[in-house]
Design brief:
470 residues, mainly alpha, two-stranded antiparallel sheet, 7% strand, globular, binds benzoyl coenzyme A
Length: 470
């Protein structure tokens, strides 16, 4: 199914057949562009070597070329429709999926789409100044690729709001451009999207941990009985993979450089040599991992039980699971703090679905940590290495909110926690050091000294390719 690029809004949803919808989206488009101009990347550029979606099929879905950023073709792309698709879970299991929103699920679906949509422009806002300090043109190009695609993911949600939620949906689409990351008056909806992404170590951590929450949330919405949402998310997941690649390989390169400097100078403290020490990397990891864990919502949630039963939001890889996909009566064990200890409690599986998703996410996060420790081992650095802190560490949402739990999982009192904080979360000195390393490197093929070069260029281009022109 190819995409019509002659339309003002590229799309594969036959937009020109629905003049009202087309007009509504065409009137939202200039407001989106105004938002991009005001809240998008601050670094002026001539053009950037970017990937643009051209088809939603299995092969050759994107092409690469030099694009002026504000002229990127943001469009509406849904994965191909499976005419026989049936609901895989919940009370409507086995019935045909919905092409329209059922009245009784309107509010809940709209809420899920708004929450998802809100994160996309938020991340662009958080990252808007990073171009000023990019460690290479390769990295700068990757930042802009992530940014334009998050902008497109906003389009994906705005399309659903306009096409299926009438007046209320159009109002919500407007509000997505009015809320801003970190704003006092009108912040973004979820906590992690109001945090700053002030430096490139934070950016790599964000794309590793927070974009990975995106992967899991989109994975559950891809199971939705509301077929247009499912098809939208399926295509978004395709783009999302590159964002996590940026995070994984970005941290690889920071760890590798730290390891090189540790060997060269025979010390753990590589700060004086222009690197980022493992202790600092660990503290950044602890922060980004814990705020990303909060994005899954409470360990027990009646919202999620209702979403599942209604067929709005499934589980990760729902159809590969070997159970009844209805879960009434099923129980599950989950950890919770009790009397100074963390104990396992038996609870209805339905209300524990946020926990279920978080467990899959944690296992996925661990793969990066294992990979980074392998890089250390390849430099002869043994020892504890990097690790994921305990699930209860630094949590603001769910059963662990308000508890004082160390990264190793001990429940401590408030004073002990505060005393340990500088060892566990980035300190002002850590941030100042990382910030001091953030100097732009815009010469083709050159890379800042605090991270190793990437292994390969983009789309087969050499590393010294001019990925961005000014
Ligand atoms: N911050 O029943 P509860 C991405 C609210 S990332 C603030 O425990 P529920 C991306 C919650 O809204 C993926 N508020 O949780 C990544 C609820 O409020 P209401 C984004 C929070 O509803 C990088 C109340 O607390 N997509 O795509 O089961 C770059 C009770 O909540 C937070 C989605 O999240 C928080 N952290 O689950 C770009 C998918 N957590 O309704 C993009 C859509 C909870 O009582 N959203 N609350 O006023 C959802 O599925 C669910 O809304 C949540 C929460 C998983 C977020």
């Amino acid at each position: 199914m190819s995409i019509d690029y002659t339309d003002r809004i590229p799309n594969n949803v036959s937009l020109s057949d629905d003049r009202r919808l087309q007009r509504a989206l065409e009137s939202w488009q200039p407001r989106f562009l105004q938002w991009w101009g005001e809240m998008g990347p601050t670094l002026p550029t001539q053009d950037v070597y970017l990937r643009t979606a051209v088809s939603v099929g299995r092969e050759g879905w994107a092409n690469f070329g030099r694009v002026k950023l504000p002229e990127y073709r943001w469009g509406i792309f849904l994965a191909e429709r499976d005419q026989d698709r049936r609901i895989a879970f919940g009370q409507h299991k086995g019935k045909p999926v919905w092409q329209q929103v059922p009245g009784e699920h309107r509010a809940a679906l709209q809420r899920l789409i708004v929450v998802q949509g809100d994160t996309e422009p938020a991340s662009v806002e958080q990252q808007r100044r990073l171009g000023l300090t990019a460690p290479s043109l390769y990295d700068l190009r990757n930042l802009f690729q992530v940014n334009v695609e998050e902008g497109r993911h906003l389009w994906a949600m705005v399309y659903l709001l306009h096409a299926h939620f009438g007046r209320a949906g159009r109002d919500e689409a407007e509000a997505l451009l009015q809320r801003h990351s970190g704003s006092d008056d009108s912040p973004r909806i979820l906590g992690a999207f109001n945090e700053e992404t002030p430096d490139w170590l934070s950016f790599f951590m964000f794309t590793y941990f927070t974009d990975r929450d995106g992967k899991y949330q989109l994975g559950t919405l891809k199971e939705s009985a509301f077929d247009p949402l499912s098809r939208t998310c399926e295509f978004m997941l395709k783009e999302e993979a590159h964002h996590m690649f940026v995070g994984t390989t970005g941290i690889d390169r920071v760890v590798q450089r730290a390891a090189e400097l540790m060997c060269e100078h025979d010390t753990d403290d590589v700060t004086p040599f222009g690197g980022i020490s493992l202790a600092v990397i660990q503290r950044y990891l602890n922060f980004h991992y814990s705020v990303s864990l909060d994005l899954f919502g409470g360990e027990t949630s009646t919202n999620v039980a209702n979403y599942f039963t209604a067929g709005l939001k499934g589980r990760w890889q729902e159809e590969r699971r070997d159970d009844d996909h209805v879960l009434t009566g099923a129980m599950t064990a989950l950890p919770r703090p009790e009397g100074g200890r963390i104990v396992e409690a038996e609870l209805p599986a339905l209300t524990a679905l946020n926990h279920d998703l978080r467990v899959a996410y944690i296992a996925d996060c661990q793969t990066g940590v294992t990979r980074w420790n392998r890089i250390l081992a390849s430099h002869g650095i043994s020892g504890p290495g990097l690790y994921l802190p305990h699930v209860g560490f630094n949590r603001q949402v769910g059963v662990f909110a308000g508890c004082h739990i160390t990264p190793r999982g001990e429940v401590v009192d408030a004073a002990t926690w505060q005393a340990g904080r500088p060892s566990w979360l980035p300190t002002p000195a850590d941030k100042a050091h990382v910030e001091s390393l953030m100097r732009p490197v815009y010469e083709p093929g050159k890379i800042a000294a605090w991270l190793a070069p990437p292994r390969n260029g983009i789309n087969g281009q050499p590393l010294d390719y001019t990925y961005v022109r000014f």
